[in-house]
Design goal:
alpha/beta, elongated, Ubiquitin-like (UB roll), 3-stranded mixed sheet, about 270 residues, Rossmann fold, disordered C terminus, 2 domains
Length: about 270
């Protein structure tokens, strides 16, 4: 058999040069096509579809406010930036953004559902149904009976969980908390819609629930001894180990005459 004869060096160089030129032309062609695609009006963003259960916003207003902040076309648009732009709108909790070929965006929004005010009296922050703190115009809140919860930052979810735990426990005495506070020292305080202020003390949710149950199941009997109903309770202190202390409106614990002062030189036994 004859051995293959190697091509001359100049031929090999010509072949390599031709291959390189061909690859360069192919890359340039791809770049030109990509540039044309990116610049073609067909792919310019033409519509944003906004969906979701919107109460405090509407799709038209959202599109008008967000569209000027978007840069790029269907391919170059930063979806993360679009999401951030929508989530920066008051009342919007989350936004899911998807491309819809060739020139549309689909946006699915979820609004905050306010369930409580958060912070000290006068603070305009609110809690949503997930226990997350958010800021919005409180004048847009339709419900006028939201409770106020307050506590250390980062504890909002725990405050909401405890509030929800107390609601059914207080139903037997026809009361509900309108304020719930967790102090920096870990002590719980509540104010009921009857005007009663309750010291719930420290402890786990199980311990707080147990004290509340004991109070609810026995307080009617305790107040009836003084001819009062549970809604006459001014304060209740549940921090005692074997019971609780009450202060009733219109009832004093001081009875009888005040003791007379002793006469000098005399003693009593």
């Amino acid at each position: 058999m004859r051995e293959a004869v190697a091509a001359p060096l100049d031929v090999r160089l010509m072949n390599a040069t031709a291959s390189a030129l061909f690859m360069a032309l192919a890359v340039m062609g791809l770049v030109a096509i990509l540039w044309w695609v990116l610049r073609h009006p067909l792919f310019s963003l033409s519509a944003i579809s906004v969906q979701g259960d919107l109460v405090h916003n509407n799709a038209v207003t959202l599109r008008v406010n967000v569209a000027p902040r978007l840069a790029g076309n269907f391919f170059t648009l930063d979806l993360g930036a679009v999401r951030n732009a929508f989530e920066a709108v008051p009342w919007v909790r989350s936004a899911v953004v998807r491309r819809d070929f060739p020139n549309r965006l689909n946006v699915q929004l979820q609004e905050h559902q306010p369930v409580a005010y958060w912070g000290a009296e006068g603070d305009s922050r609110m809690l949503n149904s997930f226990g997350e703190v958010f800021e919005a115009n409180v004048g847009d809140v339709e419900a006028d009976d939201l409770p106020r919860l307050s506590g250390p930052e980062g504890q909002s979810a725990q405050l909401l969980a405890t509030y929800r735990m107390l609601l059914p426990l207080l139903e037997p005495i026809e009361a509900a908390p309108v304020k719930l506070e967790l102090t920096d020292r870990g002590s719980w305080r509540a104010q009921l819609d009857t005007g009663t202020a309750i010291e719930l003390g420290r402890g786990t949710p199980v311990e707080i629930a147990e004290r509340t149950r004991r109070f609810v199941y026995t307080v009617t009997q305790a107040t009836s001894k003084y001819g009062r109903a549970p809604d006459a309770i001014e304060t209740a202190d549940l921090r005692h180990v074997n019971g609780y202390a009450l202060r009733l409106r219109g009832v004093t614990t001081v009875t009888g005459e005040a003791p007379k002062p002793r006469t000098p030189g005399k003693s009593t036994h």
